[in-house]
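Researcher: We're reviewing a set of sequences before deciding which ones to prioritize for further study. For each one, I'd like a predicted 3D structure that I can look through quickly. This is Transmembrane protein 186. If possible, include the structure in token form so it fits the rest of the review sheet.
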Amino acid sequence: MFTARLVSLSCRYAQRQFFRNRRQLSYLPWLTNSKNGVVLSDSLQRLPHVSAMQVRYSEVAKRRKEIIDNEEWTLIFKYPFIHRIRFFCRMKVYHTAFTLLLAPTSLIAAHFDLVSSELATVFLCASIAACLVMLVIGNAAERIVGIIYLNQDRSKLRVAHLTFFGQRADDVLNTQDVANFADIGEKWNDILVKVHRYNVPDHPFFVTLRHGGIVDRELFQAVFGHDDRFPT
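Model: Here's the predicted structure for Transmembrane protein 186, in token form for your review sheet.
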């Protein structure tokens, strides 16, 4: 019963992750049909009846890269320990793969009476629990911001964070969609400070400022507000 319960919880978590990723896709820049072919429109101007599954992700990513390359970006924040988090994310993938291999191996060994069924059950439960923990921790690590850039006219933010596999991913946000820390009750000296987005309120990013990282304080405050108690 305990094993079945763990399997059920893991399936539910995977299902929630799948639908969460589908919702995130709907906030990407949208490709809509026009007389001249395909054009890119901002997420705020997307048609509500268009399904996220109709977006060709590769073309969106290619077009986003072109937009990023054509803008002039100023570095305003860089988390000094983002490389350690990246190393942890990659180790997490290897650890998850190892535990997934351990579970069927223990079941096969129990089938041939190489180990007891009780020991195989322990390995199976430990593998499922470890995978769940890795998924939860990995989901949290994906939201930690490593680098923040601001474009020349201060209308867009370029936020660099990690993917589940420890690769870099860049998101472009409108500064009007990003809340000041004080407006949402966040303090600069907290361990994790929420980067709240009005258009995606259920999927915030997080920054940590305790260990420094602010490169351009003036531009950083222009986006996230002021906090005189926080040391320069």
